[in-house]
Amino acid sequence: MAENKAKISSMETSQDLKSDQNEKQTLLAVLQFLREHNLQETEAILKKETKLTDNDLQKEKAQPSSAVSHALAAYKSADDPSIYDDMSTRLNWPLFSTLFSYTSVKFFQKFSGDQEEYYAEDLARLAAVQQREHMEADQMMETFKSSRFVIRMSRDSYTHLKRHLQERHLTLLINMIQEHLFIDVFDGIPRNQEQIHATGGAMLGEADKEANKAKVFYGLLKEPDLNIPLEEEDEGGDGDGGDAANKSKKKKAKKDPLLMKKSKNDPNAPQPTRIPLPELKDQDKIEKITAYREALKRVKLSAEHLPSICFYTFTNACQGVTSVDFTNDSSMLAAGLQDSNIRVWSLTPRKLRSMKPQSDLEVIDKEADDVLERMMDDRTATETKVLTGHSGPVFAVSFSQDRTSLISASQDGTVRLWNLLTWANIVCYKGHNFPVWDVKFSPHGHYFASGGQDRTGRLWSTDHYQPLRMFVGHLSDVDCVQFHPNSNYVATGSSDRTVRLWDVLSGSCVRVMTGHKGAVHCMTFSPDGKILASAGVDHMIILWELASGMALAHLKGHTSTVYSLCFSRDGTVLASGGMDNSVRLWDMSRVIEEQDTDTDSNVPSSLHVNTSPDLLLGTYYTKSTPVLGLHFTRRNLLLGCGPLLLS
Amino acid sequence: MEERMFAIVTKESVRMMAEAAGYNNLSEDVACILGEDISYRLREVVMKSTGYMKNAKRRRMFPEDFNQALRDSDVQPVFGCGVIADAAPFRQTREGDVHFVEDTDITLNNVVYSSYIPKHLGHASLKAHWMAVEGVQKLSSSAQQTSHGKPTKKLEAEELMQFYNEITKSLVGSNAAAVKLALSDLSTNCCVPALLSYFVNFVANGVKAVSHDISKLTVLMHTVDSLVQNPTAFMEPQPYLNLLVQSVEYCMLEPLAASINPQNDHWILRDYAARLLAAIVRRWNSPVNHLHSSTVATLSEMLHDLSRPFCSLYGAVMGLISLGCREIEEVLLPHLPVLLPHLVASMQDTSRGNSLIRADAHKVHGIILLAAQIVMRKKIKQFQNKHLPGKESDDLHAGSSPGSRQSEAIGGQDVVRLYQQLYEYFGDSLSFTLPIMSLGDVFCGHVSEEVVNLGGQVSEASGEMLLADLMQQVQQEEVERWQQRIFSVAHRHQHAGHSRMRAKQALASGQDEEPVGNLSEREMTFSTHLKSDVSDDSDEEEHTDSFSEQLAVSSTISDPSKGTLKLKISKRQAQQGQASPSQQSTVQPRLTLQINKSWAETDRHRHYRDTHDKHKRKHRQSYKSFHEPESSELVENSDPEEYYSHPMSSLPSQIYSPGGESSGSDSNPHKKGKLTLKLKVLSKESASE
């Protein structure tokens, strides 16, 4: 163990361009120590040694310095700086972290400063652990011990490293690497510092090449043929998305390019029957037609035509608003509060009404056209309704597409389904036993996904009290979940700084996307389903291309955690809001234009991340209201909301 | 990484906690290990609670987060810290190494049964606003500042404070140019909003501090003015407005220390302050802050408090005047019956010690007079506007229908009543500045008017006789009633034997119309100034029935001892085309005459009201000796001294009310060129003009 430690330290310092005298000395000491002991005895010795006081270790480290420096010098001069760069920083952290359990405080103090800045959070957590007993109990330490840190390296770098290790007989280090690290070798040019930095940051390294190989059907589902005439007549379409045939009936000029794909078979779109989706009721068809009509009237946004923003401020909220959600047609706004209530407001002049009691319902004529209107009791019309039921702060709320249901997730570990006609709690889903951080309804209704502190994401459907799928793979809390527009995939963002895409059908993880340097708190898919945007504590928004799993752009500008993201209805503008009290608009059309078409996921060195500052179209400040929710209406008016913080 | 990156519970603390729990003999090793363990657990819990904080989308950790993390670790939560972050008030022991929270005993009864109900309990609600319209956000300076991040703001804060210090220094300094510069800067500089609280504070303290120094106070008032004028300073939502208004009111209303010395002209300061106050109210009044109503309330309260020194009253009245006529009407006038006697009592108290107060009282009286005049003027104007819509166009109304005449009469009654009321207080001085109303063609007072027929030839020789007779008669008339006389005089310039007066009788007087020419005892001598183009012919014409619009000349009295009272009547050119054919005659001067009995021995004044000429219909009414020349072309004004020579104070108690068309007299008889009828007392020797 001591040898491991020594070797690690030697590796680190030898590969660190900026190794200073102190480290050299330490390395020498370690090497010397190694020479003094036999390999087989190392484990026992190290165990003994960790129980020793710091002073002993100090003493032992102090002695040999010359040998190490020689080795170091030789290594330095021999190597090509580019490759050097490639390996040095990246091996630093994983070796440090995985071996932390075997080391002492002194070790930590000596080498922690060498680590990359974005590991600061993890370093802080490690710093808290100082006793062996604590180490064993700590979650993070366990993670490091049990999982393998992944490093992607070019073949040249890898061979170079191997040769170097063997030359210096640092076999233990080799063993260590084999045991705790996973070096994923790819053929090709080594990546440069920038590219490495772009994908670095996750708790356990990057995604290996197998992780992103699966095919993702990122296209949109074929819309049901609804025959939407421009006249007022309303012809029902022929069933739901189960119909592959698309004889075009009397169609008009479709202004929406998204709808253009109706008639074509998108190779990237999943089959409509891939996952069972509920059939469209008449009400849903009417809804779709209305949506289509609204879509025709929407404003085209671009860098020259920025959207208007209407902002809703929660006043007198006592710092208690923890989550918000808008309905798809922008008619209602729900807010989950710290005091475990949920408040729903109506954003239209139309008030919120409750359903009539049963005795009244029996009397109404069920065949009437406006039965849905007659059902509602106008005496109960109010602007806002309160839903009570949770026993802890409500961390997420989500409306269903048909606006009849609301789902909420809370710290008490339950997910509750509320009916918005009767304003009552219908179901309580108990699966997570730990706080549930996020919950979202699927765009097609019926399914919802949740993620919580237990590091899992779960897929539920409203008619089953147990989850249908469990998405296990994250190394830390799952902070946010999001459905793909075709409902076939669920994306989860976690405190382990990765974003994973899960297939609903199989439950397997099809994409692992690394690059965030802080926990991911919000995600959103573009309306065409090709791009995923995620953002979080590191103030950065990353755009991922789902086909390859590679990052398209890093949008920098926010100065604090970003909690809300929303694409415009045509996908040309991305709006983001966060704790820095600002709403920022980003140019998506430009990102797509400037997209480097040569990138190939098989060739990591071809990664080109767009970090141009011109992508920021505008910044809009509130006085002291963090922006918790953003939503583009069907006509591309941007709605934002947040609680007014007076302190 | 530092040693003390996280909270570390030291051995000593552990020992102390153990002692508090009853374990007195804790060995060092145990304490050490315990300390480390506690520190680790603390960190762990804090890590978890940051998770709660982040997912609740906050930056501040609440005690609730911490308690939740404790519950997750199967530890009992800590009670008593509140859910939302209240700063735990830690106190230190004298030695300073122990921090504790005061654990006071609370009597539950007091808490439970306390009647204190916090006000302004807000309900969670939603408020919408437009953050940007088509990508454009209405800029606010704070937003711009924060966009550059904190460091810039800090820097600016220093610069801002510097600016503030410089400005305030130069304002209180003695360099006039610096003061001027500072004031102009204040009114335009856009960093004023950031410093608004400082400036308001400066002014509020300043007025109290330098209340002995008029010039400094003036400077402070100018400062307020500049601040108000600054387009970027937005004072409405904050208490700035109240403070500023209070400061201004202080200057205006308070008996300043400086005002003790009568050499200090604090009146100008008060005037300025009053105007400033009005400007502020006008600009910043809103239904939200009720600035206007509260200011008016303050002023009226000041007025009603009779124990206040007169300078305060002065300030209050001045304030009301500046605010507007309506305020005067609503607040001041109803209060006059109380206020004025008090004032007059003070004014008449001629004791030595009272002289200063008396002077002040005079000032106040003057200002109230001004207010009254303003009100009267406005009323006249209103009345004129209402009842003489055609006055802009040179329309000579042939005659309105009797019905409308009645209603006009009634409307005019209010004006008259008001005038009567005010006249009681002020007498003739009221009409000093009031316009003369001429309503001859619209309205004819239904009250009886004294009419004297003039006509025929009057010889000089019989002038005295006539005068004597007339004097008698006038006295009689005066006893009976005085009302407005309406004259229409067609006359010629007085020459011996050629003058003749044509007097028409006013309507509704109830008196018999004396035919023209029937100037038996009442021959008068008039000297008229006529325009050359007035022909004799026109004089001859008789106005038959539409006399109501015409004036009837009243009697004149000529006192042989003082000379002939000359009545100058100017003729109006008959160029009112719209006039009815019967009214081709030129002049329709309207005169009212009031003869003061008490003046009978001294001077006779005749007041005539002329209708205006073709150009203007200036309706005026003069009860006193002032009248305006109506048209420059028609009249030459004679010297006004004689008209002003009589003291105003000796006014008749009777008010000459012409039943509806009353208004004050004009201020300046020579103001406009109009037809005037002037009364001049000529000495015997003075010849005709």
As a percent range, the share of strand residues of chain A is 25-35%
Overall 3D form of chain B: elongated
Outline the low-pLDDT stretches of chain A. Answer: 1-29, 34-86, 231-262
Distance between the termini of chain A: 51 Å
The major β-sheet of chain B equals:
2 strands, antiparallel
Content-based structural category of chain A: alpha+beta
- How much helix is in the residues of chain B? 40-55%
End-to-end separation of chain B in angstroms reads 113 Å
Taken as a percent bin, the fraction of beta residues of chain B is under 5%
Mean pLDDT of chain B: 65
**Strand adjacency order, main sheet of chain B:** 1-2
Q: Classify the helix fraction of chain A into a percent range.
A: 25-40%
Radius of gyration of chain A: 28 Å
CA gyration radius of chain B, whole angstroms? 41 Å
The H-and-E topology of chain B, N to C, reads as HHHEEHEHHHHHHHHHHHHHHEEHE
Organism (chain A): Batillaria attramentaria
InterPro entries (chain A): LisH (IPR006594), TFIID_NTD2 (IPR007582), TFIID_NTD2_sf (IPR037264), WD40/YVTN_repeat-like_dom_sf (IPR015943), WD40_G-protein_beta-like (IPR001632), WD40_PAC1 (IPR020472), WD40_repeat_CS (IPR019775), WD40_repeat_dom_sf (IPR036322)
Subcellular location (chain A): Nucleus
WD repeats (chain A): 314-355, 387-420, 429-470, 471-512, 513-554, 555-589
